[in-house]
Amino acid sequence: MGDADTKILIVDDHALLREGLQSLLSAQPGMRVVGTAEDAHSGISKIDSLSPDVILTDLAMPETGGVDAIHLIRDAHPHVKLIALTFHREDGYVHAALQAGADGYVLKDDSRDELVIAIGSVLDGKKYLSPAICEQVIAGYLSAAEKKRLEPSWRVLTRRERQVIKMIAEGLKTREIAEVLSLSPKTVEKHRTNMMNKLDLHSVSAVTLYAIQSGLINE
Hints:
- This protein is of the alpha/beta class.
- The protein has 2 domains: 6-137, 3-Layer(aba) Sandwich (Rossmann fold), CATH 3.40.50; 156-218, Arc Repressor Mutant, subunit A (Orthogonal Bundle), CATH 1.10.10.10.
- The protein has 10 helices and 6 strands, in the order βαβαβαβαβαβααααα.
- The protein has helices at residues 15-26, 40-50, 66-76, 91-100, 112-123, 131-155, 159-169, 174-181, 185-199, 204-213, and strands spanning 6-11, 31-37, 54-57, 81-86, 104-107, 128-129.
- It has a 6-stranded parallel β-sheet with strand order 2-1-3-4-5-6, with helices on both faces.
- α3 links the parallel β3 (54-57) and β4.
- The longest helix is centred in the middle third of the chain and has 25 residues, at 131-155.
- It is rod-shaped.
């Protein structure tokens, strides 16, 4: 091993996992575990003296958690690469770690090869997500994007137009809507036309689907 080896610091409160990772990574060509720590404070205190290139940190640790540790390390050592290593697959943990400044997110039940690939990726300046969570992260992103697309649209409607779209989706006819709102059928038709033009909807079925997807049907 030489000075060019990738220096790794492992921060995890489970001794067996620290020892297992140290053994596994030290056997990889070009990698050297320069230190381990059982909690975030201990890990942070070792950074200056060990000068690691990559830090692997658990997210569920006593006292200062991994997400807080990532925040602190990123602020003090912006050039160190950080990989969250955890059992947590939930979107909330993934987003929190990435927002805190993690460069990678790897699951503890991923393979050795995945961890090695993750380390190489972050050293190359790339972000890395465990393949096991990529699909759910993408699905969550698309769902959020769709929600964002829908939410602003109905905000351009007037109160009357929102009442009309809701009633159309509930199956009421123009005359029935007019009676409920104490309006003339002609006025209801005007609101209906304006609403459909604003939302770029062209049929009753499209109006109904939009009302359901945007939550208007439940108001």
